[in-house]
Specification:
Strand content: over 45%
Order of helices and strands: HEEEEHEEEEHEHEEHEEEEEEHEEEEEE
Number of domains: 4
Number of strands: 23
Distance between the termini: 84 Å
């Protein structure tokens, strides 16, 4: 059989001739965008511009009934505050014949202000995160953890910063996040008036980062602990008996942080029942340490780290 239009051998009308008479088309459609980059997609404001364009491209492409689309890819040719111009690449089947074609598409842009930007532009806030860190590096670490979409403003204050948050719901999410990182959290509320017939409170959340981080050494009740993992409950290693245990962040806050710990490289010079000897590779002094029940599990020649605190020496 031959194509009745061009004479190409095949089973009836060929794909090329079919597409000439039955072109793929793109229906008129629009997309709602905010100046912050969010798109109104599936009933909510989200940072999913590419996903929204892909969804619109697939939903509004008119495909003739005899074409089975197997793959659809789009390319944004240009974009302004009124229009988005696309080229849509389509691959599929017409009967048993593979086809590839391109469709030019235009999407109208509707510019609107999303809820977050509306609140921010109106200087609206429902909660204040009061951050009082020990150093500036902690401030940056905390701010990086907060979604800027919910920040109305940031104010420098004595001993820290205040971050104004648009919703209490997001502020509560931050409280849980900070608690899980071992932060000291204190919350208070102030009655601001009525909102939709109910008392409206503005929440103030004091956030103080823990004084310790992974790798720090803390002295509690004359015992030295190394912080292995931080969070609401902190994993610590008692460097004297080598036992790892969970310690509450509150308890650790009451301990004494060992500032600028004197940690050195050393090597095990000898091992005997109940005792090991280590050689300090910095000053070449040797130290005899108790090794009850072979708690160190070390052999001669093993390289180790030692911690010196006054006259006390520990293998860490």
């Amino acid at each position: 059989m031959f194509c009745p239009k061009c004479g190409k051998e095949g089973n009836g009308l060929c794909a090329k001739c079919y597409l000439e008479g039955s072109e793929l088309k793109f229906k008129k459609t629009e997309i709602i965008l905010c100046s912050c980059g969010k798109v109104h997609y599936h009933g909510e404001w989200v940072h999913e511009f590419e996903s929204a364009i892909e969804g619109l491209a697939g939903k509004n492409l008119v495909v003739p009934s005899e074409i089975n689309v197997e793959k659809l890819v789009f390319e944004i040719l240009s974009k302004n505050n009124k229009r988005i111009f696309l080229k849509i690449y389509v691959a599929g089947k017409y009967k048993s014949e593979s086809i590839k074609t391109e469709v030019l598409a235009e999407i109208k842009v509707i510019n609107k202000t999303c809820e977050s930007c509306g609140r921010i532009s109106g200087n609206y806030y429902e909660a204040v995160i009061q951050i009082r860190p020990d150093d500036a590096e902690n401030i940056k670490d905390i701010i990086d953890d907060i979604d800027s979409d919910f920040i109305t403003k940031v104010m420098d204050v004595k001993n820290g910063i205040d971050i104004y948050i648009t919703t209490q719901q997001y502020a509560r999410e931050l409280v849980n996040k900070f608690k899980n990182r071992g932060f000291d959290i204190k919350t208070s509320a102030k009655l601001m008036g009525k909102k939709e017939g109910r008392d409206f409170y503005r929440v103030y959340i004091s956030v103080k980062p823990p004084r310790f981080k992974e790798g720090d050494f803390i002295e509690i009740d004359n015992r030295i602990y190394e912080v292995a993992e931080t969070g609401k409950n902190v994993i610590c290693k008692d460097i004297d008996n080598r036992i790892t245990k969970t310690v509450s962040a509150i308890k650790l806050q009451k301990g004494e942080l060992i500032v600028n710990p004197d940690v050195r490289n050393a090597v095990v010079s000898s091992v005997s029942p109940g005792e090991i000897q280590v050689l300090d590779l910095e000053n070449y002094e040797t130290y005899d340490l108790k090794n009850k029940k072979n708690k160190f599990k070390l052999n001669s020649g093993d390289e180790v780290k030692i911690l010196r605190i006054g006259n006390r020496v520990y293998v860490v």
